[in-house]
Amino acid sequence: MAETKLMTIDSSETWKILLSQTEGRDKLYRTLQYACKLVRGLDAGSSSVSNKSLALEQVLSNARQVLRLAKWVNIWSKRMGQASFGLKGQDSVGATLQLLNDLGNFLYFALDNYALLGKTILDRKDANTYQLRGKRFFLLAVIAGFLDSLWKLRKVRKQLSLVSARETSATVDNKADTGNVSHELQVLRKQQQDAIVGIVRYGFDIVVGISISRKEQLSPTLTGFCGVISSLMAWYQVWPRKANV
């Protein structure tokens, strides 16, 4: 229903809808956060610019940490709402990778939430340690997401080959089936595009995950650049689209 409504609204209204969602705001803050890190890396010789970028980066990081509160509950509810973990069936590889992605995100959010409570309420000195552990599970999640996107692309390309062959046969033997096959091809090409976007996003996020899961992070320029690209890909994934009717 929400997608159908988007067909009649302008771009400014689309932005309002997107930013009214927690995911939309998080993607905006994340893009700005890593843009600040990138600027800090490029202007390492300018103390004024670096200090301002670092201050804004920390503010955005803290804001995102608050937005992530209780997100692990959503993952738990999603998994518990399923009849099984989905590891049985024809696509057990994809289901396993999605499970690892959810597990990584679940532990990342849970430890991140605990670290936030440790800093603000519990006054625990080991809060940063738990936050670092959580970021290692983020790395697990993005690696699983990357492999899952590769697996989806492999499957879709196989299906595209089969449907393309059917399209040729339909054109020659039964022109009435051509429209159905063309629609199938359109859907598969969209799935292929989504898989490629996922590969790009998670590929850059692997670099980010490696960096933030270390006590001594990689260079701000590299981490910031990869973070900006992966954030833009994430924006694309959550951007409201017109419904196909």
Summarize this structure briefly.
The chain has 245 residues and is mostly helical.
Structural commentary:
With 245 residues, the protein is mainly α. The chain has a domain at 1-67 and 219-245. It has nine helices and no strands. The longest helix is centred in the middle third of the chain and has 47 residues, at 127-173.
What's the pLDDT, averaged over the residues? 84
Tertiary shape: globular
Helix/strand order, N-terminal first: HHHHHHHHH
N-to-C terminal Cα separation, in Å? 12 Å
Low-confidence stretches: 1-8
Largest sheet: none
Q: What is the helix content?
A: over 70%
Number-wise, the strands total 0
Percent strand equals under 5%
Could you say which structural class the secondary elements and strand pairing correspond to?
Answer: mainly alpha
Number of helices: 9
Cα gyration radius (Å): 21 Å
Summary tags:
mainly alpha, 9 helices, 0% strand, disordered N terminus
Q: Helices and strands in order, then pairings?
A:
Layout (H helix, E strand, L loop, with lengths): L1 H4 L5 H9 L2 H21 L4 H21 L3 H10 L11 H29 L6 H47 L4 H35 L7 H19 L7
